[in-house]
Amino acid sequence: MKLQLMMDKFAIGLSAMCAIHCLAVPVLLVLLPSAAALGLGNEQFHFWMLAAVLPSSLLALFLGCKKHKRYQLLILGIVGLALLLSAVVLGENIIGEAGEKVLTLLGSLFVIAGHWLNFRLCNTKVDEHCPCPSEQR
């Protein structure tokens, strides 16, 4: 069960990084034009973040779903992952920069919500039949 909690936290952090990157990089580039040399706006960032988010999210969500039988959390996370994947696959060339940002932000929010609820469910006593060990609540 500790693996599931750790992966939930990891996936929340990665998804939050995606959202912050989407919102902060344009502002940073306007305020500090020399930051463009850092390559923060690079499309490879989205690809590598997705490569880290997908396995960690799927593992944590499936483990949580297996324990709690709350399939809506799994669906919430999968919808978020699908939105993130769509943003990377379609990219700026097809849906434009605004479309890519909207998909990334929505996807990140869905993934964060799914993991947050999954994490909370394992850390609070919902009922006596919860299979999570009591020392983790």
Question: What does this 3D model show about the protein?
Answer:
With 137 residues, the chain is mainly α. Helix content is 80%, strand content 0%. The longest helix is centred in the last third of the chain and has 53 residues, at 71-123.
Give the SSE layout.
Blueprint: H1 2-31, H2 43-68, H3 71-123
* Order of helical and strand elements: HHH
Shape call: elongated
- As an assembly, this protein is single chain
What is the β-strand count?
Answer: 0
The biggest beta sheet is recorded as: none
How much beta, percentage-wise? under 5%
Helix proportion range? over 70%
* Gyration radius from CA atoms, angstroms: 17 Å
Count of alpha and pi helical runs? 3
Low-confidence stretches: none
Mean pLDDT: 77
Give the class from helix and strand content and strand pairing. Answer: mainly alpha
Determine the N-to-C terminus distance: 11 Å
Give the structure's gist in a few sentences.
With 137 residues, the protein is mainly alpha-helical. The chain has helices at residues 2-31, 43-68, 71-123.
For this entry, give a set of tags:
single chain; 137 residues; mainly alpha
